[in-house]
Write a structure and sequence with these properties.
It is a single chain. The chain contains 25 helices and nine strands. β7, α22 (535-543) and β8 (547-551) form a beta-alpha-beta unit. The chain is an alpha/beta fold. It has helices at residues 2-14, 16-49, 59-63, 66-98, 105-121, 126-138, 140-147, 153-161, 164-181, 187-192, 198-209, 213-249, 255-294, 316-340, 343-348, 368-376, 403-406, 417-420, 441-448, 467-477, 491-500, 535-543, 556-565, 575-583, 586-600, and strands at residues 353-357, 381-388, 394-396, 453-458, 484-488, 505-510, 525-529, 547-551, 569-572. The chain has an eight-stranded parallel β-barrel with strand order 1-2-4-5-6-7-8-9, surrounded by six helices.
């Protein structure tokens, strides 16, 4: 065991820098491109299925749609290719280390691509399945943790875990899965190093494992348990430090929300690093055992040929062109994610959204101060109301007249933009905001782009109004389709919007739960008074792929009720309070209380 650990450490250490760089660059690049594939495929599949959102209630129907099946198959094939390419890169590094070769980063990437091409040429397609099976088995606990954040998987997992029979069945399935995967553990090296066919490599793997199967599995399992335990302890330690810093530096009213937000992101980072480490160690162990059982290192003959640079297909010039092209594609995709936000998260994560009602708390509504406060208070979305000025500009205002916010008994439509922006719309709330003016929707979008999503309520100005057209034009101009929901009490507006731009998300604001609004093709979101939200109402809406946004929710009991029901978004005047109630856990709150006591002594 000590010898195995020592040799594993040695083959990792020899090319450690380029090994880590390869994994980081490859995982980030592959992840970004895969994200864009999932984003485009999910959006297209939902559209073809006639759903605005994926829910536990419509999941089965969605997955059985022809376009969804095609999307899943394309995604699966892409996943098989990406996993085998990564394994090929790791095998390249470790087999080089077996001959004391220090490989450049370019050689590692070239080896990974060359192996992928070789396996396709030889028709070793079963190796792709074995690669994915190994990947799943090694990363099982991390994959499970990720799926608990994704619907409908979280719902399915929760329901299954309640059943003793389901838990027993799952354990049996995992045992069978292990029995099927372990015999092929050395097939990668047979195919990739010795250039054998898949069947010959599988036979060789089974032969090498004869009498060793249990010990090989237990060693792999033991190492992965130690790694998972190490990352768990590191994550807990990091959380402890973060809690200390939050108590030390943040304002008390936002401590809990800030810590919840930070630890959620830190957990994703730890899962990413743990997944990388798990594969690095797994392939390193398999490589050491493979060479040990075949006595490959003791042979005097020629070793594996690493000089892929001689190959015409991947010479240095072609390889650099390939890497630059792939790098450019990744950068474009990454820029799009940062600039346009995470649309997948809005479609499939279990996160109950929190929308700041007319802006953040303790600010005058529908002002830039309110929008900025919503960002500072970590709301997912801000709800704003828009109207049209006399000279055709789209501005923020809720009431029919300006009497309440500007002490002027006139309508927005009676004044020009220039006249409106001379009005003080902050002093009614507090003298601190005496400089606040009515902002245009264009100003709000310029600020909100990439910072916070918008729920834009178009006030009913009559069916002939051009306000919906102007709002849509601004959304498209700012490229914010994924960041905006356009809502209204006027159904005709929503129909017009969908006819002009089918991909825009629309929400129908209804005061009470009457009528068949669930199956409306022009509506993606049902925005309804929270008291009318029931389990049955949610089920009917979700079955049709509609999200449900509840307004205006400020009490703890109502927040907790809606969270239990599984409402998709809560519109509230107090986003910090809502997040504390919805996402607080005893451990996080306990850490904060501990550090408060320590620091006040």
């Amino acid at each position: 065991m000590k010898t195995l650990a020592k040799e594993t450490y040695q083959i990792i250490r020899l090319n450690f820098r380029n090994l880590i760089l390869f994994e980081l660059i490859y995982r980030i690049g592959a992840g970004v491109i895969l994200y864009q594939m999932v984003r485009a495929g999910l959006k297209f599949s939902l559209k073809m299925a006639g759903f605005g959102y994926l829910t536990p209630e419509n999941a089965v129907s969605f997955l059985l749609k022809p376009w969804t099946i095609l999307f899943v198959l394309i995604l699966a094939v892409s996943g098989f290719i990406l996993v085998l390419t990564e394994i090929g890169g790791l095998v390249t590094v470790y087999s080089g280390a077996a001959y004391s070769l220090r490989l450049s980063l370019f050689q590692v990437f070239a080896g990974a691509v060359k192996i992928l091409i070789d396996e396709v040429k030889q028709g070793n397609y079963s190796l792709f399945l074995v690669g994915m099976a190994n990947y799943v088995l090694v990363n099982l606990c991390y994959i499970y943790r990720i799926l608990t954040h994704v619907k409908p998987m979280n719902f399915v997992a929760g329901e299954l875990w309640q059943s003793v029979f389901a838990r027993f069945t799952l354990i049996v399935f995992l045992a069978v899965f292990v029995v099927l995967v372990v015999p092929g553990v050395f097939t990668f090296h047979g195919c990739m190093i010795e250039q054998k066919s898949y069947q010959d490599s599988l036979d060789r793997s089974i032969s090498l494992l004869r009498g060793r199967k249990a010990s090989v599995f237990l060693r792999q399992f033991g190492y992965q348990v130690v790694l998972a335990g190490g990352f768990l302890l590191a994550y807990l330690g990091c959380t402890l430090v973060l809690a200390f810093l939050v108590v030390l530096l943040a304002e008390k009213e936002s401590e809990l929300v800030l810590l919840i937000q930070i630890t959620e992101r830190v957990e994703w980072i730890f899962l990413f690093l743990a997944g990388i480490t798990a594969m690095i160690v797994h392939i390193a162990l398999v490589t050491v055992e493979y060479y040990e059982y075949t006595s490959f290192q003791k042979r005097k003959g020629k070793g594996w040929d690493f000089f892929y640079l001689r190959e015409k297909l991947i010479n240095r010039r072609n390889g650099l062109i390939l890497l630059i092209g792939a790098g450019a594609a990744v950068l474009v995709c990454l820029f799009d994610i940062i600039y346009n936000g995470n649309s997948i998260r809005k479609s499939v994560t279990v996160h109950t959204g929190i929308t700041a009602h007319r802006g953040g708390a303790e600010t005058p509504e529908n002002t830039m101060a309110a929008i900025m406060a919503a960002v500072e208070q970590m709301a997912d979305r801000v709800e704003i109301d828009v109207q049209e000025t006399e000279d055709g500009f789209v501005v923020l205002c809720h009431d029919d007249t300006l009497k309440r916010v500007a002490f002027l008994n006139k309508k927005v439509s009676d004044l020009t933009l220039e006249e409106l922006q001379t009005l003080d719309v902050g002093s009614w709330y507090s003298s601190e905001f005496s400089q606040e003016r009515i902002p245009t929707l264009n100003q709000v979008m310029e600020y909100a782009k990439g910072k916070i999503d918008l729920n834009i309520e178009i006030k009913n100005m009559g069916n002939d109004s051009m306000l919906p057209d102007k709002v849509l034009a601004l959304v498209l101009e700012h490229e914010m389709k994924d960041q905006c929901i356009i809502t209204s009490t006027n159904h005709n507006y929503l129909k017009r919007l969908k006819e002009m731009e089918p991909e825009i998300k629309t929400g129908y604001i209804i005061p009470a739960a009457y009528g068949d609004y669930y199956s409306d093709e022009f509506v993606d979101v049902i925005s309804i008074r929270s008291s009318f939200v029931t389990e049955r109402m949610l089920q009917l809406a979700h079955e049709q792929g509609k999200a449900v946004h509840a307004w205006t929710v400020n009490g703890k009991a109502e927040l907790e009720r809606l969270e239990r029901l599984g409402v998709d978004d809560i519109i509230t005047d107090y986003p910090i309070l809502a997040r504390e109630i919805l996402y607080e856990d005893e451990g996080t709150a306990g850490l904060l209380e501990y550090w408060r006591l320590v620091l006040t002594k």
